[in-house]
Amino acid sequence: MVLAAAVAVGALGACDPGGADPPSTTAGGRAGAGSGTATVPPGLLECGKPTDTDKGLMLSELDLSTATWPMPSGFAETFLYHEENPVEEVVSTWSAEPVPAVDVLNIVNVIVYTGLDWGDLADDCGRVPVSAVEERLAGYNSQIGAEPVSEATMTTVAGQPAIEQHIHLDAYDYHGYWLFSQDQLLHAYCQWTNDETLIEAGCAELIPSIQVG
């Protein structure tokens, strides 16, 4: 699969040099001490913006387990589902179904995983190579017997760079969003068997409403 930049939304990361001048510091030995003008170490200037996908995928520095979101219109929380094929260690799961319910497996979901290990793939800016993300997603799809039906593209979730893709399984299809941090994954997705329009409408309301931290 190929990751392509689809949206360029300004989510500020720790290494983002753009915008306003960095604040000056007064601690002894630090840049700007006594001068009122701060300097940025050269390495930081090379990080670019979080949405510069040619440099890799920026891993969120937020605690993804703090994510919150309102209930999509016309949906209600359901406790009839669990993650049958967890791809990492599950922290929390949440599901909601249309009211009235249209059929089983027509739901929207948010799952938070932990225990991810990027090894030495993450650089000093907190980015991992696109190829590493492709490989991880391919591994997830293989693990659950899923088949991608669209290219993975860059988007944002909670103001952070994330990945979006449509997936097919034998029992249902889903529209997934993956937000990665150093050791966590927030996977928000909307799955359906026979009412894509209704579930995608819930997805269109859910995804932009997710907030973290």
Tertiary shape: globular
Portion of residues within helices:
10-25%
> How many alpha or pi helices?
3
Oligomer: single chain
Count of DSSP E strands?
A: 11
Uncertain stretches of 5 or more adjacent residues = 1-45
Strand residue content: 25-35%
Terminal Cα span: 31 Å
Average of pLDDT: 81
Task: List SSEs in N-to-C order.
Answer: EHEEEEEHEEEEEH
What's the Cα radius of gyration? 19 Å
In terms of structural class, how would the helical and strand content be classed? alpha+beta
Query: How is the main sheet built?
Result: 9 strands, mixed
How does this model look, in words?
This protein is α+β, with helices and mostly antiparallel strands. 15% of the residues lie in helices and 28% in strands. Strands 1, 3, 4, 5, 7, 8, 9, 10 and 11 form a 9-stranded mixed sheet that branches. Strands 2-6 form a two-stranded antiparallel ribbon. A hairpin with a 3-residue loop joins strand 10 and strand 11. Residues 1-45 have low confidence and may be disordered.
